[in-house]
Amino acid sequence: MKLNHLFQRTSKIDLFSLGEKRLAQLKAEGRYSCYRNTRATLQKLAAFVGGKPLPLGKVTPELMENFRDYLINTVGNSHNTVAENIKILSRFFDEAGVRNNPCKGAGLTRIQRPRSYLQEEELARMMALRLPKGSEMDVARDIFFTECRTGLRISDLLQLRWCDFDGQYIRLKMQKTRRPVEIPVSASVQKTLEKYHDLFSRPNSRIFPILDRVKDRTDEFSPLRRLIYGTSHVNMLIKRVASRAGITKRVSTHVARHTFATMLISKGASIYDVKELLGHQDVKVTQVYAHLLDGRKRELVELLEGGVRVI
Fold first, then answer.
1. CA–centroid distance for 293 within its chain
2. What share of the chain is helix, strand, coil (3-state, %, to 5)?
3. Based on C-alpha coordinates, what's the Rg of the chain?
4. Which residue of 196, 206, 261, 304 is most buried, as measured by CB atoms within 10 A?
5. Beta-ladder partners of 184
6. Which residues contact 214 (CB under 8 A, 6 or more apart)?
7. SS3 for 174-197, per residue?
């Protein structure tokens, strides 16, 4: 739903009043992450203007530039956090049909940092650790390993049910994109998943028990809150496992997804192959791994030099 008609009435309308309508809209649509990020951005803007109303007519490019500087120098937000905050406000104005979007000159370009991933040897060290069978750290490690071998996001693995797995393939609709995917399962992943199958397993029960230990809430965002808590809990456990294995890199569940893509490309898979397995809708998203493919191309070309003498 667009808010154009509200903006077209008068420039005296308070931005924060419209913000409340936007938040109500996001809540009704069940878009928890967008709701949470938009609410946080509006709270920062409210603090910047001293809690006073902010008529739309007073939202100028200069004000947005000052707000950006406030986030950097006073709040101490990172470059990418500030870029995301300005982007949220810019989208807010665009969807509202505001002419001459005041955020356009204040925006920052996100810094693309190198994607962290594990080498095969590092993953092997994590898997070789002796952990109490069935302990939370053991379960978290199995989730991490499954992600390294399937490329599935943690949000999908935490909700993975036995009805999604037929012994050879995992078939599900991704939580983030709602895109259906079919992932072939290797023998090592089959063995990992079967550790959790017993006489009490039901088709609709979750394979990994992490979310079963998270209490339900009564609000409309309960399922998404549980996912966020479950993800945070697994990340905390994985950091402990990595530390015990002597790995100094910052390890998280998303590092497992990067590890999956990196290992595939290093073994010759194309960007398009990886795109399909990761469930990306646009190959541009997968292009962050292109530098790995460039290195692979050089290796292949240099193979032609073997046994050839230049006269």
1. 23
2. 60, 5, 35
3. 24
4. 261
5. 169
6. 226, 229, 230, 233
7. CCCCCCEEEEECCHHHHHHHHCCC
Q: By three-state DSSP, how is residue 184 classified?
A: strand
User: Residue 8 and residue 56: Cα distance in Å, rounded?
Assistant: 11
Q: Which two tokens stand for residue 95?
A: 């969807």
**Tens-digit pLDDT profile for the chain (311 aa)?**
444 444 445 467 888 988 898 888 888 877 778 888 999 999 999 999 999 998 888 888 999 999 999 999 999 999 999 999 999 998 878 877 777 888 888 777 877 776 788 999 999 999 999 999 989 999 999 999 999 999 999 999 999 999 999 999 999 998 887 888 899 999 999 999 999 988 678 899 999 988 877 666 666 677 777 888 889 999 999 999 999 999 999 999 999 999 998 888 888 888 888 888 888 878 877 777 766 656 666 665 666 666 555 55
Query: Can you tell me the distance from the alpha carbon of 157 to that of 249, in angstroms, rounded to the nearest whole number?
Result: 23
Which DSSP symbol is given to 75? I
Cα Dmax for the chain: 80
Which residue in this structure is represented by tokens 């994109």?
177
Backbone angles phi, psi at 289, to 5 degrees: -95, 5
Helix (H, G, I), strand (E, B) or coil at 171: strand
**Amino acid identity, residue 190?**
Q
How many angstroms separate the CA atoms of 108 and 274, rounded? 29
pTM check: above 0.85: no
- Beta-strand (E) ranges in the chain? 169-173, 180-184
Distances (CA, A) of 126 to 12, 117, 119, 278: 59, 13, 11, 23
Whole-number Å distance between alpha carbons of 300 and 55: 61
Measuring CA to CA, how many Å separate 69 from each of 92, 108, 219? Answer: 20, 11, 36
**Tokens matching residue 117:** 């991933």
* Buried-state track 81-108, b at ≥16 Cβ within 10 A, e below 16: bbbbbbbbbbebbeebebeebbbeebbb
Beta bridge partners of 181: 172
